[in-house]
Design goal:
Blueprint: H1 4-49, H2 52-57, H3 61-73, H4 79-91, H5 104-110, H6 116-129, H7 133-141, H8 144-149, H9 154-163, E1 178-179, H10 193-202, H11 204-211, E2 215-226, E3 229-239, E4 244-254, H12 257-274, E5 283-290, H13 293-300, E6 306-313, H14 319-334
Parallel strand pairs: 1-6, 4-5, 5-6
Antiparallel strand pairs: 2-3, 3-4
Helix pairs in contact: 1-4, 5-7, 6-9, 10-11, 12-13
InterPro entries: PD-DEXK-like_domain (IPR053148), tRNA_endonuc-like_dom_sf (IPR011856), YhcG_C (IPR009362), YhcG_N (IPR041527)
Domain YhcG PDDEXK nuclease: 172-326
Organism: Pontibacter qinzhouensis
Length: 335
Amino acid sequence: MKEMQPYNGLIRQIGELLKTGREQAGRAINTILVQTYWQIGKHIVEFEQGGKAKAEYGAELLDRLSKDLTLEFGKGFSRSNLFQIRQFYSRFPKVQTLSGQLSWSHYTEILKADNDLEISFYARQCEKENWSVRELKRQMKSMLFHRLALSKDKAGVLQIAEQGAEIQKPADIIKDPYVFEFLGISQQFHYKEGELEEKLIRNLEEFLLELGKGFAFIGRQYRISLANRHFFVDLVFYHRILKCFVLIDLKRGEIEHNDIGQMNLYLNYFAREENVEGDNPPIGIVLGAYKDHILVEYATENISNQLFVSKYQLYLPDKAELSAELEKLLEDDTN
């Protein structure tokens, strides 16, 4: 058995080398593929801009290219693929802006966004948070860009479009609404707060993706004992970027003023009893299905703690409605 140990170590070392090598080879192939498609798109666009396309082929350029390239080089040159390749170059005209981390599958998803602001945001955010294609699809379906943008002014919208979402202060982690469509709960289903919490824990990976970058799960029903009374925080996280606890309380219906007061109590307790040297003040988020903006405004006024009130919904937001709101925000800010 002892003689086998060095040999087993050799097997592990070779396995690690093979895994690393294959990953590096995959990234290199991906980078070459993305850059090749960019170059193909460049040639198509420059040919069209030269006027030859209209003179010789008109609207049939991509059709003819598809047939001729498929005949000579095989699959991969359908009309729809060539359209995406041309669009890819048009949306990313500077090759320096391409990311070596994003695959062609990432870019084909990103190109489905409606405008340059969204495209730029998802490309930056995907690279920053190392999203898989599946994660990217989910974030785009949940209208992440719109949900973040609507909480900002025009300058803030342009900043997150150009740079992605930066987490520098507590407010940067807040979304309104949060979207829990991954739980598969029907709007008509009468669920309890405990059931919602249970489903979120069972789907922790998706929940963390919705919360955003930097969250580490600490526990659920976190007990606080004060004067022989026990209180329980629904969910407790630690945010490694902001270096603070994040407390989340879930409310099945509308958020009431006493829910906000209770969260304030939790924050005071954590600041004094749970924080250690190096921790920043905790953040509290009360999440409910509904909230009254005026009630929230009065209930949170003069609270010194970092306490936020937001909505959650169990279905994907309406794309047309959010797009209209964002357009109005940008127009109003311009006037």
